Amino acid sequence: MRRDDASIHYRFIDSDNPAVTDTLILLHGLGPDMNSWNFALPFFRQNYHVLLYDLRGFGESHAGEEKVTLSLLTEDLAFLIQELNIGNYHVIAQGFSGFIGVKHATDHHDDNLLTLTLMTAPVYFPKQLGNKVIQERKEFVEREGSFYPLANQIIKQNCYPLTEEKASILFHAYNQVSTQVYFELFRNHFADNAAEQLNRIQVPTLLLSGAEDDVYPPELFGASLQFYRNARHYTIPNASFMMQMDQPKLTADWIHQFIGKSTAQPGYTNDTYRQALNTEMYTEMYELSRQNKVTKLDVTILDGFSVYLNGQRVHGLWGKRKAKQLLIYLTLQQSATREELCDAFWPDTDLKSAKNSLRVALHHLKKIFAEVSKTPILYGDKEFVFLQGETKSDLQDFMKEIALAHQQESDELRAVAYEQLIRNVPTNPLPGLYEEWFLDLREHLEKDLGTMALFLADNYEKQHDDHKCLDFMKLAIDYYSDDPHLIERLDALERRLISG
Questions:
Q1: Which one is the CATH code of 298-393: 3.40.190.10, 3.40.605.10, 1.10.10.10, 3.50.50.60?
Q2: Where are the domains of the chain?
Q3: CB 428 within 8 A of CB 420
Q4: pLDDT digit string, tens, across residues 451-477
Q5: Is the dihedral of CA 293, 294, 295, 296 positive or negative?
Q6: What is the C-alpha separation between 260 and 46, in angstroms, rounded?
Q7: Which among 79, 148, 280, 429 is most buried, taking Cβ atoms within 10 Å?
Q8: What is the pLDDT of residues 363-381, one digit of tens each?
């Protein structure tokens, strides 16, 4: 059928039952063509007339000169309904065509549209993740230089299981797809107003998902039910995205049952109850999710001191009650016994007094965080004290980088890593921390730095670069506390440089 400069390839199939009046309109997904419905057609025809067609730019339908958009495809649907004089009908839309189905139900709604079925149609999808999936597919096609590898990947995911017959139908369809048209349409068309669009649907709506669909899992559609006025969600067992291929009879039967219930009893008597249930359930789920949100604590230690909780700077009386020292210790250790903390911070005090001081200090530390967050971060019982959440510090990161540098396989790579680390370390690491535990930690760090500096001095000496050798030899002596052997080497090196 011609529409302006485009041609739409369609089939209208009369029902096997002469008493039938309703028509099913089948809309295929983005990539397949109308042949993707072949397995289910015999079951649909038992109870309905069937109209199926190739979207413009897919299968045997030609796109025409006009840019293919969601609005244009929705207008094509309305055009076919009018031209073919379709009476009562039900739209069954798969994948991308769910956008067409929803837009038709809201913008072109007429009394003849009785129900809407959305089969694995991601009309509501998390925005950031959706954009990521779109970008990854674009980059994959650009990298491969062809649309075929992407089609191959999608087809393998979309069937459960993938048989030779299914693959033949789908590959034939994908081979005719224009990459440009595919990516013009492959996006979240309702990204900014999905809830509003779905809430405008007046007709009973069925959401179908495949139990084995890993890309658009059933959880996605179950969670989106709250946005519809009148919807059901069924999960087809042993089926993936192409459920009409994986389970054609079951898919057709469940759609028929839904249509029968929806048209026999318009509206649901428990609609108010369902809305209240959905609202309260998702409110509680959101609250639980908020409470269980991972707390992220970031502590700067190496060069000065600062604390960030979930990206927000935490100001407080860090200089009182050993708050700074306790937080740093727990950040590095994640947890500690109360006696361990008493030994570290009140070593010269009797245990009873030390435990009392610890209790006061922990209360002060909790109070600092309570001013910026309702979610507790510091926990303790009779024996242990620990931080809850994701903790990190620049010192931990630096120590990990040192460990990785030590593991470099070649002297050349090790030298590059060591030099970068030494140039990034502050002149006075771990300032203001004078407890023995921190002094031991600083000594351990400086020993590592000294080892790296000496390695670099030796490395540059082998390369006959005496000036750089001199710089790192001086640094090694600083870290090794004036080691006489190193001083002797330094004197010899300086004399050599003076004598030329």
A1: 1.10.10.10
A2: 2-287, 298-393, 408-499
A3: no
A4: 999 999 999 999 999 999 999 999 999
A5: negative
A6: 14
A7: 429
A8: 999 999 999 888 888 988 8
